[in-house]
Amino acid sequence: MASVSWLQELLQQVAGQQISITEALTQLQRWPVDPVCSPHGTIIARLDNHRALRHGFPEVILAEGKKTDHLMQIVATILERPASQRGPLLVTRVSSKRRKQLQKRFPGLQSRGRCLFQRDPDQKNPHGLVAVFCAGTSDIPVAEEAALTAELLGAKVETHYDAGVAGLHRLLATDLLYRATVFVVVAGMEGALPSVVGGLVNKPVIAVPTSTGYGSALKGMTALLGMLNSCSANVSVVNIDNGFSAGYTAGLISRLSSAAVPP
Domains in the chain, please, with CATH? Predict the structure, then answer.
């Protein structure tokens, strides 16, 4: 991760007397917390620059619920830092209107699903294999959030979409069931797909209920309760429409599984 390697390089430069302690302190002025202020001087956010060191991934921005000018200021503050100091950037739950506004101001941001992002320029070869399945085409935005998050954590990701229980032959047609390290399975309606996948594989399955469905789907509550009551013991569940947490957890599992395998 770029932000961690930058800190290591800085310490090595101090140890090797390439830079002075005073110069190093100047570079560390915004470490570990970087306050973000509004034009009126009010602190609206406190960026956690230490998170990559603790978690192996920088702080992620949730766009939903934030004022547009606050969101712009937070993104601007992160992008002010050199790429070697910030690592990948991920903004989740971005509406189409805000996506256009952000990309106009920050043209380096890429778009995928409901996210905006910049990759880590120092990201190494991908590790493990995260399989992201979704039951229907309506579930793809949540699945894409999960897939992108796992990729930015350094995992190799492959997807298999529109493979729900109404046509199980679509699921059985992929060899991902036998190759993946960890599975993210996204479904709305009655939320049955994760249980099916869990019964077919001997790897962790992270179930993501979505708000897809008619009235009695209760905006994802029916799928959530169905997944929580799965009889497949290898299935765990995240919150409704929370592709980010599923992808993050899958990425960590993939990283740990790869680290455990001797070269």
Answer: 2-118 (no CATH), 127-260 (3.40.50.1970)
Burial of 108-125, coded b for 16+ CB within 10 Å and e otherwise, reads: ebeeebbbbbbebeeeee
Return the beta strands (E) in the chain as ranges.
33-37, 43-48, 61-62, 89-92, 110-112, 115-118, 127-134, 155-160, 182-187, 205-209, 235-237
Q: Which two tokens stand for residue 224?
A: 């959530």
Closest to 185 measured CA to CA, from 157, 207, 163, 204: 207
Q: For 87-102, what is each residue's pLDDT tens digit? A: 888 999 999 999 999 9
For residue 136, the SS3 value is coil
- DSSP string computed for 53-78: HHHSS---EE-TTS-HHHHHHHHHHH
Name the strands in the sheet holding 115-118, side by side, starting at the edge strand that comes first in the sequence.
61-62, 89-92, 115-118, 110-112
Contacts of residue 254, Cβ cutoff 8 Å, sequence gap at least 6 = 127, 128, 129, 130, 150, 153, 154, 155, 156, 181, 182
- Cα torsion for 29, 30, 32, 38, to the nearest 10°? 140
Say whether pLDDT at 161 is over 70: yes
Residue 95 backbone dihedrals phi, psi, to 5 degrees: -70, 160
* pTM of the model as a whole: 0.84
- Nearest-angstrom CA–CA distance, 262 and 239: 34
Is the pLDDT assigned to residue 164 strictly greater than 80? yes
